[in-house]
Design brief:
The chain is α/β, with parallel strands linked by helices and 337 residues long. 31% of the residues lie in helices and 22% in strands. The radius of gyration is 19 Å and the shape is globular.
Length: 337
């Protein structure tokens, strides 16, 4: 293992400390926990609060999405591990402004269990909590079992749009409904070219040959649908784009936002190569691309690979996607076009 770090057991805490030192006017700790960060101006009066959480190792997911027009707070676990119930409760209390809290997070077992427990504890203290789980990875379960799918980079669209809806001072029910619409209209598929190493483990999460790739692999190294020889950029983009288009399904005349996401060690040039072919595949189906986001929006430490995500748009979702927002981690909050 070759990493820039001090001690593996301190990796997450020292990362958080570095983030707070770098962005003191943007973030602060939630009272009572070292693993909870909130907006500097939290709680924001008159607004539904949105909280997320998950393991370290995915920047800018999760803490990179806290800020105006985005989320209000985040609880953070060790690398690829769920945050504690106590951190989630502390964050909820720090961001609650009397309008309720939405838990918006990825559909992973440990996170589900801990967020459910945190919600029960908050409800016992008079804080209304609703939950929405992002589940955009089309290869992790068949369509009839879509409720069990895991989350990947589609978290970006859920965070951005739900955050924008909450900023309008909509009530909790309306924010939940909007978040659900995003979840139901977002589809993703990924590809991995190399593994990553969790500091506390000290060895790669999986192995791939120098000339191999795995289609459909998850951001923690979860098994994909096909392992084989490395294909060309056009071949990879063709398979991923077609699988995503077929899943919703998207139809001629639909309008979409496209996200091509790097997993941590993929050069921007390679992401643009993937988009080049994805663009051709999407437009061949008569689907109109309205917004494009290319870069690192949900990573997996130093894993090489990428994902392609499509969000089916309507007038309101496009408007919310374009609404003002700020995070120092996300310079490209508004897509091109």
């Amino acid at each position: 293992m070759k990493k820039i770090m001090n001690h593996p057991e301190a990796f997450a805490d020292e990362t958080i400390e570095g983030v707070l030192l770098a962005h003191p006017n943007h973030l602060k700790r939630a009272a009572g926990t070292l693993r909870g960060l909130v907006r500097k101006d939290a709680p924001v009066a008159g607004k539904v609060a949105i909280a997320t959480g998950g393991g370290s190792g995915h920047l800018p997911v999760f803490l990179g999405y806290v800020g105006p027009g985005l989320l209000d707070g985040v609880s953070i676990g060790n690398v690829f591990s769920s945050p504690s119930v106590e951190a989630m409760v502390a964050v909820s209390k720090a961001i609650h402004a009397g309008k309720g809290v939405l838990y918006l997070y990825g559909n992973y077992g440990g996170d589900v269990m801990n967020f459910d427990m945190a919600a029960e504890m908050c409800e016992a203290e008079g804080i209304e909590v609703k939950s929405m789980r992002v589940r955009d990875d089309v290869v992790s379960a068949a369509k009839p079992s879509a409720e069990t799918r895991r989350a990947v980079a589609g978290l970006f669209f859920a965070y951005k749009i739900a955050g924008a809806k909450a900023a309008t001072r909509a009530d909790l029910s309306a924010v939940v409904t909007t978040a659900q619409r995003v979840v139901e209209n977002t589809c993703s598929m990924g590809v991995a070219l190399s593994p990553c190493t969790i500091p506390a483990v000290g060895k790669p999460t999986f192995t791939l040959g120098e000339d191999e790739m795995e289609l459909g692999m998850g951001i923690h190294g979860e098994a994909g649908i096909e392992r084989g020889k490395l294909r060309t950029a056009d071949e990879i983009a063709q398979v991923m784009s077609q699988r995503v288009l077929d899943d919703l399904p998207f139809r001629s005349g639909d309008e979409v936002a496209v996200l091509v996401n790097g997993l941590g060690a993929t050069p921007p040039e390679e992401l643009y190569l993937l988009f080049r072919k994805a663009h051709a595949v999407i437009e061949k189906h008569g689907v109109r691309i309205q917004r494009v986001f290319i870069g690192e929006f949900a990573t997996s430490m130093e894993m090489a690979g990428a994902s392609i995500t499509l969000l089916k748009l309507d007038k309101e979702l496009l408007s919310l996607l374009d609404a003002p927002a700020y995070s120092p981690f996300l310079p490209q909050l508004r897509g091109s076009r």
